Amino acid sequence: MRKSSGFLQCGFSPPRYRLGTVTQAKIFVVDGEADVASLVATALHYEGFETAVAGSGAEALASGPRFGPDLLVLDVALPDGSGVDARARLRRGGCAAPAVFLSARDAAEDELKRLTAGGDDHVPKPFSLEELNARVRAVLRRTRPGVRERARLSFADLELDEDAGEVRRGGVPVDLAPTEFALLRYLLLNSGRVLTKRQILDHVWEYDFTGGEAVVQARISGLRRKLDDRGPRLIHTVPRVGYVLRMPRPG
């Protein structure tokens, strides 16, 4: 996915899109793996961000200043060199946007310290889109004061606090595993919308996960057991389609 509208000078700029008190942001995805770059950009665009992609450091340097990103999602290992070096060259060209680096899971400790310096963050590959989205929003909240749109999600008597990593139903804490937390967050973001097992799998599990869709059903069942003890069922099965978060229907 490539989006080229609304080019501005690179760096931090005034808010461009607001939903209530919500400020959206422009995110530049730079990754040499075209499938990964497209998947990440599409997922972030679905979350409401404006996105653009590049497949190398040279392409990022050529198009980044015109796009004017508020944040970079940048692979450390690009086809034409280091993502860290590409980011440094972007900064020298006037692009002060923070970065979420995509790095190898076994990266050395000194490299990780370098990747998290100056307000940046890193996500080891492979990663789930939910994890990446959470890191992106955390960096934006630190660096752009207006971006706090989804730190707290709620539906009926169910509340999820992203910053605190807590879930409550009827004011009572619910202890969830990390995958359950990410799954519930995705359902809350799409309350009232039927989600297929494939959509859930693509957003909650790591992008290279090779397991089947049965894992979604198992996790949904576990999540229901923890939530249904506190009130009426909110996660409903739509036969032969998937799941939806909604209030129970009368009768």
Description of the structure:
With 251 residues, the protein is an alpha/beta fold. It is built from eight helices and 16 strands. It has helices spanning 34-46, 57-67, 83-92, 109-115, 129-143, 178-189, 197-204, 214-228; strands at 18-19, 22-23, 26-30, 50-54, 71-75, 77-78, 81-82, 99-104, 121-125, 152-155, 158-161, 166-169, 172-174, 195-196, 235-238, 242-245. The protein has a five-stranded parallel sheet with strand order 4-3-5-8-9, with helices on both faces. A four-stranded antiparallel sheet has the order 10-11-12-13, covered by helices on one side. It has a three-stranded antiparallel sheet with strand order 14-16-15. A hairpin with a 2-residue loop joins strand 1 and strand 2. Helix 2 (57-67) packs parallel to helix 3 and helix 6 packs across helix 8 (214-228). The longest helix has 15 residues, at 129-143. It is elongated. The termini are far apart.
Strand order of the largest sheet: 4-3-5-8-9
Q: Any idea what the radius of gyration is?
A: 19 Å
Unreliable spans: 1-23
Order of helices and strands: EEEHEHEEEHEHEHEEEEHEHHEE
Number of strands: 16
| Text of the CATH class of the largest domain | Alpha Beta
Major beta sheet summary:
5 strands, parallel
The CATH superfamily of the largest domain is identified as: Response regulator
